[in-house]
Amino acid sequence: MLIEFSPQIEDFKREVASTFSKLQRPEWLSLDLECPEYLALGRQMDQELIRRGWYVEHWPHDYGGGGTADSFMRHAVLREMEGYFRVPTFGGHGRYIVGPALIEFGTPEQKKRYLPPIARGETVICLGFTEPDAGSDLAAMQLKVVRDGDYFVANGSKLYITYGHYATSMLLAARTDNSGKRHDGVSLFLMDMKLPGITVSPLHCLTGHQVNEVHMDNVRIPADALLGEQGRGFYHMTVALNFERSGLDLPAKYMAQLEDVAEYARATGRWQRSAIREGIGRLAAILEAWRMICWRVVMLQVKGQVPSWEASMAQFYRKDFNPQFGRLMLEVMGPQALVERGEPRSTLSGRIEWYLRESFNNHGQGGRFVTRNVIGRRGLDLPRK
Ligand SMILES: Cc1cc2nc3c(=O)[nH]c(=O)nc-3n(C[C@H](O)[C@H](O)[C@H](O)COP(=O)(O)OP(=O)(O)OC[C@H]3O[C@@H](n4cnc5c(N)ncnc54)[C@H](O)[C@@H]3O)c2cc1C
Nearest residue CA, atom 33 of ligand 1? Predict the structure, then answer.
C-alpha cells in the first residue's frame, strides 16, 4: 500500500513536525507520568494546540472544527506527530470520543453545555465502561441506574478508569434495564464527577500510570445527563469508540522509541551484532505495516465509512508488537535495561526501563484473543464457534 498525501497535507506535516521539535522538552520523556509537573505540561500543550486551531480540527465546522475531508486528514497527521514527538496532552477522551459522540447524538442543550468547554481544553472526561465482572465482555455490565423523578440513581463500581482521579465528567455506561437482551438495557450518561456519592480509589499500574476504581453509592444523576436514547447505550458506545479508532499515534510513538534503542545500540557498539540489527529492522518493518493499517482506517473514516475489523487489526498489531519490543530491549541492553529512572547507571535517563514496563500494557480495549475473535468474525466471516 502506498499513501500519497496532497502537497497541502505534506506541508502541514512539515509544519507540525517543526513546531513539535521546537516545543519538545526533555521533561516530556523524563518525568513521571502522574507527577503534577507532567500534568501541567499536558495542559500547556492542550492550550498550545487550541491556540494553533489544531485541537478539534476534525470536528464539524459548526462546532469549531474544519468540517472537511482535508481537515480530517490534517487531524490524522497531527495525531501521528503527537505520537512521534510523545506530546503530553490530556483532553483526548473529550476531543476524540465524547465530543464527536455529543455531536452525533447529544441534545442541543448538551451540545451547548459540553462542546465549548471541551474545545477550550477545560474538561477532562474519563470513560466508565469496565466493571469488576465485565471487561472484554462489556455486555455483562451490572452497574445499575434507576429512574427516580428528575434523576437517575446509580449504584455500583467501575474499574481501571484512566483519568478518573482528575476527570471533571465521566461518560458512564450503566444498566437501566435487566429484562431483555444483554446488549439492550444499557444507557449512557455524562456524569459530573463531583456528584455526592462518588468515591475514586487509585490503582497503580506497572507503567507508572494511575487508573482507578470509581464507586457510586446512590449517586443522583440529573435526568438531562442521559446521552442518546435510553437502552441504546451499548450501540451508542460502539459508535462513540469508532470515532477515534485509527490509533495512528501508537506506531509513531513506538517508532520513536525504537529509534532510541537503535541509537543506544550504535553508541555502545552492539549494532555490530547482526542479530541486533536484524531485530531492530524487523520491528521497524512491523511498525510500518501497523502504520499502514492505521492509515487504512483513516481513509475509511474520510469516506464516511465506519471501520470495524480494520481497527481491530490496528489494535492487534499493538498487542503483538509490545512483547516483541520488550524482548528486543532485553537483547540489546541485557540487565542494563532494568535500571530505573533516577539511578546513575540508567539507560537514556531511565526511558528504556519504562519502555520495558510499558511493553506489558496489553489489556486495554480487550485482550489479544478477544481482538483476534473480532477479526475472525467480522473480517473473515468465521462462525462464532
Ligand atoms: C492501562 C489500562 C487503562 C484502562 N482504562 C480504562 C478506562 O479508562 N475505562 C474503562 O472503562 N476501562 C479501562 N480499562 C479496562 C480495559 O478496557 C479492560 O482491561 C479490558 O477490556 C479487558 O478486560 P479485563 O481486564 O476484565 O480482562 P478480561 O476480560 O478478564 O480478559 C482477561 C484475558 O482473557 C482473555 N479473554 C477474555 N474473554 C475472552 C474470549 N471470549 N475469548 C478469548 N480470550 C478471552 C483476554 O484476551 C485477556 O487476555 C483499562 C485497562 C488498562 C490495562
Answer: 367
Closest CA to 53 of 90, 112, 12, 101: 12
Which residue has a Cα nearest atom 13 of ligand 1? 160
Ligand 1 interacting residues, C-beta cut-off 6 A: 126-130, 135-136, 160-162, 205, 209, 211, 361, 363-370, 373
Determine the CATH number of domain 245-379.
Answer: 1.20.140.10
CB 245 within 8 A of CB 285: no
The alpha carbon of 231 and the centre of ligand 1 are apart by a number of angstroms equal to 23
pLDDT digits (tens, 9 = 90+) for 273-313: 999 999 999 999 999 999 999 999 998 888 888 788 888 89
**Under a CB-based contact definition with an 8 Å cutoff, are residues 96 and 244 in contact?**
yes
Residue 11: is its pLDDT beyond 90? yes
Considering only CA atoms, which of 240, 246, 299, 213 is closest in space to residue 106?
A: 240
By most ligand atoms within 8 Å of CB, the mutation choice from 97, 98, 136, 141 for ligand 1 is 136
CA separation (Å) from 319 to 99, 127, 201, 290? 27, 21, 28, 11
Specify the pLDDT at position 208.
78
Q: Where are the alpha helices (DSSP H) in 99-201?
A: 99-105, 108-119
Rounded CA-CA distance 339/349 in Å is: 9
Say whether pLDDT at 363 is over 80: no
Q: List the residue whose alpha carbon is closest to atom 7 of ligand 1.
A: 161
For residue 124, what is its C-alpha cell? 477532562
**pTM (2 decimals)?**
0.92
The architecture that CATH gives domain 125-232 is Beta Barrel (2.40)
| Main-chain dihedrals φ then ψ at residue 37, nearest 5 degrees | -65, -40
Domain ranges of the chain: 7-90, 125-232, 245-379
Report residue 2's pLDDT band, with 50, 70 and 90 as the boundaries: low
For residues 30 and 349, the answer to whether their CB atoms sit within 8 Å is yes
Q: What is the DSSP letter of 131?
A: B
Smallest CA separation from ligand 1 atom 2, residue: 364
